[in-house]
Design a protein that fits this description.
This protein has about 325 residues and is an alpha/beta fold. It contains 11 helices and 15 strands.
């Protein structure tokens, strides 16, 4: 069983019911979630030995996080306790033409106080096949940027594959801040989840010609990124067409060795919960790479895993590898007997 380590913040999510505004809601639904934790949970469901590195308060919510992770097969051996609060965010559910809206309440969280001297990454990463982190961690503080960079450098020294998801959030930091921090860590990244807007606004790549197809434009951006960072072996993204908050079309992309591989387009309707769909896709890609699947099978699996995540409440995907394969083989809406 291959070992996978992820690093990031896990938060309490409080969501309105569809059709309710946050300003007038009197009941909220509670889940735990965070990008890197979601990836760890999905990979645990696929049979990997997963560890989540983070810090939570020593209170009922911190213990709730621990229970959530353990219940989903993720080791909490490196889940530290300390600080005063668990970061929180509020999700106002979208419906029809009204988009979902997120309100963060995460300043001064326990995770934001995590320092490099609290962790021994040589010990944590010992024997790992993969280390995964995202740009959300970089956005929280300079201290966490330095910690993440040290973790990636250690992983590379130990010969461990590294994965980074841009996950840019404009509400957390500016494009200039993000560009500076991300450029510093990309030399240590093997697998990167990024798209057209990341290439243009965070990496400063010239916009592709308007007369090119979406596929041609994506190939152009990935080739330009590879010129800047030839160490990045695989780049992935999703093409999402938002027909409404309740219906999306989703296609997965995987670029490696100068070639673009794409999944079929999934018509997802109605969407039960979109949050975590990108994390499910990332975990699907990482599963394909770790399992040494061919590139077409990998992107097909990842897109299907993301589509399935849209059908369940909460941040994380809890489907097994067999269930994803069965979904791919049987098609949409057929009864599994």
């Amino acid at each position: 069983m291959k070992k996978v380590v992820t690093l990031g913040e896990i938060m309490l999510r409080l969501s309105t019911s569809p059709g309710e505004l946050l300003t007038s809601a009197d009941t909220l639904h509670m889940h735990y979630g965070g990008g890197e934790a979601n990836v760890a949970i999905a990979l645990s469901g696929y049979g990997y030995d997963t560890y989540f590195v983070s810090k939570v308060p020593d209170n009922a919510l911190g213990r709730g996080v621990q229970r959530h992770l353990l219940a989903n097969g993720v080791s909490t051996a490196y889940l530290l306790q300390g600080g005063e609060r668990l970061g929180t965010y509020y999700l106002e559910a979208g419906i029809g033409e009204r988009s979902p809206r997120v309100t963060y309440d995460r300043k001064h969280s326990s995770f934001s106080t995590l320092s490099i001297n609290e962790l021994n990454f040589e010990e944590i990463l010992d024997g790992a096949a993969l280390f995964h982190v995202s740009g959300i961690t970089l956005a929280i503080s300079q201290q966490l940027r330095e910690l993440t960079l040290e973790a990636l450098k250690t992983a590379k020294k130990l010969g461990i594959k590294t994965s980074f998801d841009f996950n840019y959030r404009a509400t957390l930091w500016s494009q200039d801040e993000a560009a500076s921090a991300i450029m510093a860590i990309l030399p240590y990244v093997d697998i990167c989840s990024c798209g057209e807007l990341d290439a243009i606004y965070l990496l400063g790549i010239k916009k592709a010609a308007d007369d090119q197809s979406k596929q041609e434009q994506l190939i152009y951006y990935y080739r330009e990124i590879n010129k800047m960072f030839p160490n990045i072996k695989t780049m992935v993204s999703t093409l999402r067409h938002n027909i409404s908050a309740s219906r999306n079309e989703l296609q997965g992309n995987l670029y490696t060795d100068g070639k673009l591989y794409q999944s079929k387009v999934h018509d997802i309707q109605p969407i039960v919960d979109r949050v975590g769909g990108g994390d499910a896709f990332a975990a699907g890609i990482l599963n394909g790479i770790l399992a040494e699947m061919d590139h077409e099978t990998t992107v097909t699996f990842a897109a299907a895993a993301s589509a399935l995540k849209h059908t369940v409440h909460g941040d994380c995907s809890q489907f097994t590898k067999e269930e994803v394969h069965r979904f791919i083989e049987s098609g949409s809406g057929k009864i599994t007997r």
